[in-house]
Give the backbone structure.
Amino acid sequence: MVGKVNACVIISGKGSNLKQIIISSREYNFPINIKLIISNNPMAQGLKLAKKYNIPFKFFSSYNYRIFERNCLLEIKKKKIKFICLAGFMKVLSENFLKTFKHKVINIHPSLLPKFKGLNTHKKVLDNKEKYSGCTVHFVTSSLDSGQIIMQKKIIVEKNETVFSLKKKVLRQEHKIYSKAIRKIFKTT
């Protein structure tokens, strides 16, 4: 695809969704090209994926969050990034950061938003005896997991479900839905 949009993926951990986005981005007709991976965790497994796929990456400490965001923005501007995906990034971006990328930052969350925002979603789903769970790709706002929903995938919560088994089932769906949501945003097939 000619004219792919330069994208950055911001991570904190394992990077399993990152891997799926990288694989999709290598397809000819996928709308984004990952030009940068940023992590606030120097031990994030996702940084190994950056090395494996030869994608430039940066680590910035988020101890001082204002400095973290400033460093991210400087690097993002340097690489001419126009679109950002959060993949297991465990912080809330500030309004100041987001206004630079109005409707150009997306995230995936392991619940059917607006239910169960934040952490420990699978435990919350089981404690609440929900019949369904799933995942949501949404635009990012400065309010936790509150942006406009782009796409969701629903799964059945089995009677004998555990936090571990539910997490695994939802993650499989996350791997499918994130790239589909990116295509939907850019209206490609």
Notes: The chain has a mean pLDDT of 94. The CA atoms of residues 117 and 145 lie 6 Å apart. The two ends are 11 Å apart (CA to CA).
